[in-house]
């Protein structure tokens, strides 16, 4: 029986399972007000990841597509939650990234060039992390590190689940792994270098008052 199971399918299931469990923790933290997702970051990811799913399937990724589809649905859900529970600190640069994400869809539809679209959404997805990088640098306690660690592992399994390895199937997933690794590193370093705690860390959304509140500031 087990001899008939495709190992690529097993990797896809592992990646999807890790993604669901990680997002469950992340979403729970949102409702508990521990985590504040940046709305523009998640909107950009809705667009880019949706485009990447289509490209992955087009490139012959097969089972690897399962994990990205699951992830995309969860990204959409988090985006809607971010409108109520997330941060609203939006800069002109954030808007530019959103416009670029939308342009990648146009490139695919109008130029019929899926590879160029994948390169664009990969670069844009990486840029989409910038609002969250900025927010996490100011106050690292507004993100859930376990999500990003889990997404790194899920990304590796998604790569292993690919039926074919080419630029269409590898570029986007590899970008996610690198970007998530950078974010996890940033959160880890910043949490160690600040004296903020979960009970005293405050993220001020006003751009001119971005400051990590320490116990000394509160007192």
**What is the total tally of β strands?**
0
**Molecular shape:** globular
User: Strand portion, in percent?
Assistant: under 5%
Helix content: over 70%
Most strands sheet:
none
Low-confidence stretches: 196-219
Following the backbone from N to C, one meets helices and strands in this order, namely HHHHHHHHH
User: How far is it from the N-terminal to the C-terminal residue, by CA?
Assistant: 64 Å
**Annotation field: number of helices:** 9
Mean pLDDT, to the nearest integer, reads 82
Number of domains: 1
Radius of gyration: 18 Å
- Which secondary-structure class do the elements indicate? mainly alpha
Transmembrane segments: 6-27, 39-58, 64-83, 90-109, 115-133, 145-163, 169-189
Keywords: Membrane, Transmembrane, Transmembrane helix
Brief descriptors of the model:
mainly alpha; 0% strand
Would you mind describing this structure in some detail?
- This protein is mainly alpha-helical.
- It has one domain.
- Helix content is 72%, strand content 0%.
- The chain has helices at 7-31, 39-58, 64-85, 92-111, 114-128, 130-138, 145-160, 167-193, 215-218.
- The longest helix has 27 residues, at 167-193.
- Mean pLDDT is 82; it is low at 196-219.
- Keywords: Membrane, Transmembrane, Transmembrane helix.
- The chain crosses the membrane at residues 6-27, 39-58, 64-83, 90-109, 115-133, 145-163, 169-189.
């Amino acid at each position: 029986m087990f001899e008939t199971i495709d190992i690529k399918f097993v990797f896809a299931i592992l990646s999807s399972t890790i993604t669901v469990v990680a997002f469950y923790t992340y979403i729970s933290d949102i409702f508990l007000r521990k985590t504040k997702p940046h709305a523009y970051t998640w909107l950009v990811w809705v667009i880019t990841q949706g485009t990447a799913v289509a490209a992955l399937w087009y490139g012959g990724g097969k089972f690897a597509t399962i994990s990205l589809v699951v992830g995309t649905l969860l990204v959409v859900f988090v985006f809607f939650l971010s409108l109520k529970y997330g941060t609203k600190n939006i800069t002109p640069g954030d808007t530019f990234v959103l416009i670029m994400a939308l342009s990648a869809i146009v490139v695919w539809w109008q130029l019929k060039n899926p590879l160029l679209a994948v390169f664009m959404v990969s670069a844009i997805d990486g840029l989409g992390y910038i609002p969250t990088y900025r927010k996490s640098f100011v106050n690292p306690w507004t993100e859930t590190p376990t999500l990003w660690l889990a997404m790194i592992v899920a990304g590796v399994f998604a790569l292993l689940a690919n039926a074919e390895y080419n630029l269409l199937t590898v570029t986007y997933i590899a970008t996610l792994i690198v970007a998530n690794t950078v974010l996890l590193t940033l959160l880890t370093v910043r949490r160690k270098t600040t004296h903020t705690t979960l009970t005293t860390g405050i993220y001020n959304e006003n751009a001119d008052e971005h400051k990590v509140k320490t116990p000394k500031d509160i007192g």
